[in-house]
Amino acid sequence: MEYLQFGCQVLVGGVFAVSAGSKVYSRAAFADFAAATTRLTGAGTGRARQLAAGTVAAEIAVVVALIVPVLVPWGFAGGIGLLAVFSAAIVRSLRRGQRAPCRCFGASSSPLGTQHVARNAVLAAIGALGIAASLSEVTSSLDIGLACVVAFAALLGVVLTARLDDLIGLFRATTATSQLGKHQ
């Protein structure tokens, strides 16, 4: 269970770290995220900037909680809560017919869609798995070699999550190209 917990910590914490980092690595990145928050929530510019800053602060708090051993279950719970809020905002936006880019991981221009809600649901399920693993009574030390393998697999999950829009776009382009070839 420790390796499962460790893998969930690296995956969920890594996704939130990349997400927060992509929003604050420059003033322009944060301004883009604040503008996306305005479109997504309908809040005024000043309120949207506060919401954007609060979002980044909450994401960083989740990452820190997932690093501090006594806070790990709370980090997973906070991550699940954030993902629920993000999903609710996406669903609300989709119902209003708005498909503006969410800027979840920086400069993506892919419009919001159900794939983002599905992504958040999978991450929340991983967070729930992490809570269950962290509440188990088993305590022993991790083998460094196996921990590295688990961390590598989890980091691969972080990359795939952060680049989900690109992967979907790649497969859509490939499918469209192959169907175009069939019609010629």
Describe this structure in words.
This protein has 184 residues and is mainly α. It has one domain. It is built from seven helices and no strands. The protein has helices spanning 2-24, 27-41, 45-67, 72-95, 114-134, 144-162, 164-183. The radius of gyration is 18 Å and the shape is globular. The mean pLDDT is 87. One of its GO terms (biological process) is methylamine metabolic process. The chain crosses the membrane at residues 51-68, 74-91, 117-136, 142-162. Keywords: Membrane, Transmembrane, Transmembrane helix. Residues 1-132 form the Methylamine utilisation protein MauE domain. Its main location: membrane.
Summarize the structure.
This protein is an all-alpha fold and 184 residues long.
Write the layout of secondary structure elements.
Layout lengths: L1 H23 L2 H15 L3 H23 L4 H24 L18 H21 L9 H19 L1 H20 L1
Q: Give start-end ranges of low-pLDDT stretches.
A: none
Order of helices and strands: HHHHHHH
The level of helicity is over 70%
DSSP strand count = 0
Percent in strands: under 5%
Number of domains: 1
Structural classification: mainly alpha
Q: Give the N-terminus to C-terminus distance in angstroms.
A: 54 Å
Shape: globular
Q: Write down the Rg.
A: 18 Å
Query: With helices defined by DSSP (H or I, 4 residues minimum), what is the helix count?
Result: 7
Mean pLDDT: 87
Largest sheet: number of strands, sense, barrel closure: none
Name a few traits of the molecule.
single chain; 184 residues; mainly alpha; 7 helices; 0% strand
